[in-house]
Write a structure and sequence with these properties.
This protein is of the alpha+beta class. About 25% of the residues lie in helices and about 30% in strands. Strands 6-5-4-3-2-1-11-10-9-8-7 form an eleven-stranded antiparallel β-sheet. It is globular, with a radius of gyration of 21 Å.
């Protein structure tokens, strides 16, 4: 699953809870038992998926994400330095391919009409500068006219109130997501900062890599820049008029999590 995945809200004294666990399920798939869980303890977040033994841990303080496969003993790590290296590699590969296309295109442009040349140059600009001219620049987020009354499933004892937002590309609805206040989920200030930090880290990592590879048709949301506070507890994705995914918070608790939950195995292989 693409991680559903900065730091705003209420840093008040009332946020005095223990650790927190959030479990999500794709309710669009009937009888689907697959779940994704976020386990948060202070500055650490562990991401787990049912049916997988892979361990994924994000550290808010070091801004580092480690993924460990206990079956193979191999691990991978990404931080700002590693991300910069990968982006540079992707950019170099993309620009080399574009240079070859541009050389051939210059010959073709001479046989085109002025209008065709304008379109051709525009397409070339999108390939060369996806961060400026890519499809992601057409994204916009709006607060739904009527706020959702709340998300409730059979596994939740109470309704969690949340605000609905819509993500559009031009006039095409891509996603609807509902944001709940941290306090309604017993999430304290530090845990909220860690979760929002993970949102920002994941957005930055995915979008930078995709843009470096020349892909700009993503539908990811930068909650901080869009000024959207809260915790995402429901995300509905659309393809045309059809729902293709419906992630919903199916359970949450503030039970204490042992430190060992966030420990990686010794002797990991890179």
């Amino acid at each position: 699953m693409k991680y559903i995945l900065t730091i705003v809200l209420l840093y008040t004294q009332q946020f005095a809870f223990a650790d927190v666990s959030l479990v999500f399920k794709d309710v669009h798939i009937r009888d689907n038992s697959h779940t994704t869980a976020y386990l948060i303890k202070e500055n650490q977040l562990k991401l787990t998926e049912s049916g997988s033994r892979r361990i994924n841990i994000f550290n808010q303080d070091s801004q580092q994400f480690i993924s460990f496969d206990p079956d193979s003993g191999k691990s991978s790590m990404i931080n700002e330095k590693v991300l910069d290296q990968r982006v540079a590699e992707f950019n170099q590969r993309r620009l080399k391919q574009i240079a070859e296309v541009e050389e051939k295109m210059q010959v073709t442009l001479k046989t085109m009409t002025d209008k065709e040349q304008e379109v051709g140059q525009s397409l070339l600009g999108m390939l060369k500068y996806p961060e400026l001219y890519g499809k992601h620049t057409q994204l916009r987020v709006t607060l739904a006219p009527v706020n959702a009354s709340g998300v409730k499933s059979q596994k939740l004892a109470t309704t969690v109130a949340c605000k609905n937002y819509h993500l559009y590309r031009k006039e095409q609805l891509l996603k609807t997501f509902c944001m709940a206040e941290a306090s309604s989920l017993n999430i304290n200030a530090q845990e909220y900062q860690t979760l929002r930090g993970f949102y920002a880290f994941d957005y930055n990592m995915q979008t930078r890599l995709m843009l470096a590879a020349g892909q700009s048709d993503f539908s990811l949301v930068d909650y901080q820049n869009a000024n959207i506070p809260g915790v995402a507890i429901e995300i509905i994705s659309y393809k045309g008029p059809d729902i293709i995914q419906h992630l919903l918070l199916s359970a949450y608790n503030d039970n204490k999590l042992a430190d060992s939950v966030f420990m990686l195995k010794k002797g990991m292989k890179k």
